[in-house]
Amino acid sequence: MTAGDPAAAILHPTDFSPASELAFAIALKVALGLRARLYILHIDRDEPVEIDWAAFPAVRATLERWNLLPPGSPAEAVAAELGVAIRKVDVIGRDPVTAIAEFSDHHPADLIVLATHGRHGPAGWLRGAVAEPVARRAKAPTLFLPEGARTLVDPADGEVRLERILVPIDVRPRPEAAVRGAVQLARVLGVRHASFELLHVGGAADAPTVQIPDDLQGRVEVTQRSGNAIEQILDAASDQRVGLIAMATEGHRGFLDALRGSTTEQVLRRAACPVLAIPTD
Asked: What is the CATH number of domain 9-146?
């Protein structure tokens, strides 16, 4: 993700739920920081009689509320004055995972931003059963906002709240991609001084040595915990009021992971803050 790159693109799948509205605020804020294209993607399970464009998030109203556009600005002002090209897309298809993957194949994104509702959440197609396969199939970093989690961007005024980032580290997958991805996301959001906690769950002898970017020197704390990796990651995020968990992911490693979900997926189901999944495959 590089600011000012005319080819940069953000993909925000939505089911028009309140959780998706919070994720939309994050996607829009990232698109502003990158001066990128923003695809807002809604998927109809059945062929719609008429597309309800009014149900899509109100981009100009949001930007006016954030004092980035004057009231009553025309549609073209979003691109002309802020450098963000908005495209709202309604896709017909019964399988949201396939629809998102196919759209992403044809319109590659630098970041996918979506809310999740968990397996027992409210009606809507962005449940855990959809979000987790998207995480596995996505070819781009994916930022998930779990239902009820603290958000990164206040939808009322566009203010960013991100002071501490947690990066679980292990020998495999290598964590450097997650560190770089979290740094890039923070910069795009205008956050320059967030602190980082690199957490290893396990024995000290098994902890990896992580290459730290020069500009993070003095802002990184390496910690170690023992016990169940999922529980310790979630406890660390809760204890430190972490604003973002960034995890390198390489999908399912074996039979047990295929049954219970990867570490990233298990954290995603229960996290109280956004989770950034960085594919390393």
From this structure: 3.40.50.620
CATH hierarchy code of domain 164-279: 3.40.50.620
| Per-residue model confidence (pLDDT) at position 145 | 92
pLDDT tens, residue by residue, 164-220: 999 999 888 889 999 999 999 999 999 989 999 999 998 888 888 888 888 888 899
In three state form, how does the secondary structure of the chain look?
A: CCCCCCCCEEEEEECCCHHHHHHHHHHHHHHHHHCCEEEEEEEECCCCCCCCHHHCCCHHHHHHHCCCCCCCCCCCHHHHHHCCEEEEEEEECCCHHHHHHHHHHHCCCCEEEEEECCCCCCCCCCCHHHHHHHHHHCCCCEEEEECCCCCCECCCCCCECCCEEEEECCCCCCCHHHHHHHHHHHHHCCCCCCEEEEEEECCHHHCCCCCCCHHHCCCEEEEEECCCHHHHHHHHHHHCCCCEEEEEECCCCCHHHHHHCCHHHHHHHHCCCCEEEEECC
The answer to whether the pTM exceeds 0.85 is yes
pLDDT digits (tens, 9 = 90+) for 106-149: 899 999 998 887 544 444 555 556 666 776 676 788 999 988 89
Using only the alpha carbons of the chain, give its radius of gyration: 19
State pLDDT tens for residues 149-158.
Answer: 999 999 999 9
Phi and psi, residue 242, nearest 5° = -65, 140
User: Domain limits of the chain?
Assistant: 9-146, 164-279
The contacts of residue 274 (CB under 8 Å, 6+ apart) are 26, 143, 144, 145, 146, 149, 150, 151, 152, 243, 244, 245
End-to-end Cα distance, the chain? 18
